[in-house]
Specification:
Order of helices and strands: HEEEEEHEHEHEHEEEHHEEEEEEHHE
Number of helices: 9
Shape: elongated
Oligomer: single chain
Largest sheet: 6 strands, parallel
Distance between the termini: 100 Å
Strand order of the largest sheet: 1-5-4-6-7-8
Strand content: 15-25%
Helix content: 25-40%
Radius of gyration: 35 Å
């Protein structure tokens, strides 16, 4: 008859050959054997002996499997994969933790062999306390007898005893392990309830045989692995959906009611599967009829930079609606940046224009940002002056940003952009498009009759094609048009 396993925490390390065997005085444990057979002669199912040194697994090949097909292996939840006989390397034994309250009685677990014909190791725990001690990372599956006595800390009378309370406790104790419930053939309903609570399957203890139980254990391990992977995938998709909704809500809504100007914008974040990057823009019309437009770029293009860009955009809108402009507005934005950035080396470039109510003139402030592109009928598109370009926000304390007056005329288009549009490569070489290349491109597209959204779409698409694929940096482009 088997005897209780000593409460050893060193069991897995000894088995794997990663630690010396426990000292002899820790107490031996007999292996389970068929009736009439000496424990040492049992060639199959083994009750673990923590004092007996196990051989190290001979499979040292790297694991490249990421699927859940039972033909390629089973995952024990720790990143190790246990392969079966379809592979040339020797497989690793499965380990099962049996929780039953009468290990000295008739054994309810028959001889077990894994798919490679090797004995499945069985540990026995008499109660949940012992199970907690023996439940280590190398355990693949838990066999729980639903007839296990109520834990000592349980509440409720014997008449009100709920066998599933023990199962719930085990599921809470081992959320990453497969669990098989054992019940009597007359209590199939209880077994079905156990599966509904969270067990991978249930078996009748009085109808068990080694082949059935071995197959059920392998199936339970694979099903648990598959369920865990599916849950992680679902959680990842849910987080991605929430992030997309959040980012979409953070994109600006231009306030141009009452203005004759037409507005168009194009935005492509550099981060994969993101909707928002470190670039930001906004356009608002103040009560006096002035249209204020802004575009900026926080250095970097990760989620922190995206969040900082949103903060700067919202601060710019609030300050603009409060009546600030030019040097005073940019100085206040720099204070916001200095307080909100996570690192002192983070800075932001910015281009701000304020277009007069009649639409013929504009004030321009540049903070380390490329100058806008102005196009007018009958004239080639050109860059606005950038001689008085001030430093980027966050670089120089007490910096100044002079405001330049620009004549626009009666009919014009003004394109504001971030450096992601001009820093893409041209072909397979190291040459970049640059501002000159962008100007030539836009001139050609304007000559082809493109305008508004079509112009921006064509510009961004051609820049991507010249780069040979997606651009590494965020791209934002804003276009304001005034017709005569």
């Amino acid at each position: 008859m088997p005897v209780p396993v000593p409460r050893q925490r060193a069991i897995p390390a000894v088995e794997c050959g990663q630690a010396p065997a426990a000292s002899p005085d820790s107490g031996p444990s007999k292996e389970q054997a068929p009736p009439g057979t000496h424990p040492a002669e049992n060639p199959t199912t083994r009750r673990e002996n923590p004092t007996e040194k196990r051989e190290k697994p001979t499979d040292t090949s790297p694991d490249t499997s990421t699927g859940t097909d039972s033909r390629t292996g089973t995952d024990d939840g720790t990143g190790r994969t246990h392969t079966d006989r379809t592979q040339s390397a020797a497989p690793t034994n499965l380990t099962v933790l049996l929780i039953e309250d009468d290990p000295a009685g008739s054994p309810i677990v028959p001889d077990l062999l894994d798919q490679a014909g090797k004995p499945i190791r069985v540990r026995t725990a008499r109660n949940l306390t012992e199970a907690g001690r023996l439940l280590t990372d190398d355990v693949h599956c838990i066999l729980l007898d639903l007839a296990l006595s109520t834990p000592a800390h349980g509440t409720g009378d014997a008449e009100d005893h709920d066998e599933l309370a023990v199962l719930r406790h085990v599921l809470e104790l081992a959320p990453r392990h497969a669990v098989l419930a054992l019940t009597s053939s007359s209590d199939a309903e209880r077994g079905a309830e156990a599966v509904a609570v969270g067990a991978q399957d249930y078996l009748f203890r009085d109808e068990l045989d080694g082949r059935l139980l071995s197959r059920a254990i392998r199936y339970a391990v694979e099903r648990k692995r598959s369920d865990s992977a599916e849950r992680r995938l679902a959680e990842g998709r849910l987080r991605a959906q929430e992030n997309r909704r959040l980012e979409r809500g953070l994109l600006p809504t231009p306030l141009l009611a009452g203005s004759p100007l037409r507005f168009a914008a194009r935005y492509r974040p550099g981060r994969s599967r993101a909707l928002l990057g470190g670039d930001f823009y906004d356009v608002v019309r103040t009560p006096d009829g002035t249209v204020h437009a802004m575009i900026g770029d926080v250095c970097g293009h990760g989620p922190d930079e995206a969040a900082l860009g949103v903060e700067l955009r919202i601060a710019w809108r609030a300050l603009t609606l409060a009546g600030l402009c030019g040097d005073e507005l940019l100085g206040t934005l720099q204070q916001v940046l200095e307080h909100e950035r996570s690192d002192d080396e983070i800075f932001a470039t910015l281009c701000a224009v304020d277009i007069s109510p009649d639409g013929r003139r504009a004030g321009l402030c540049l903070a380390g940002h490329p100058s806008p592109l102005l196009s007018r009928p009958g004239e080639p598109a050109r860059l606005l002056p950038y001689d008085n370009n001030g430093p980027a926000l966050g670089l120089l304390p007490g910096a100044r940003w002079p405001r330049m007056q620009v004549e626009l005329g009666a009919e014009w288009s003004l394109m504001l952009y971030t450096d992601g549009l001009i820093e893409g490569h041209v072909g397979e070489g190291r040459e970049r498009l640059g501002q000159d290349g962008m100007v030539e491109m836009v001139r050609r597209q304007l000559a082809e009759g493109l305008a508004g959204e079509e112009l921006l779409r064509a510009t961004v698409n051609e820049v991507r094609e010249l780069n040979g694929g997606e651009l590494a940096d965020d791209v934002a482009v804003v276009l304001l048009d005034r017709t005569a």
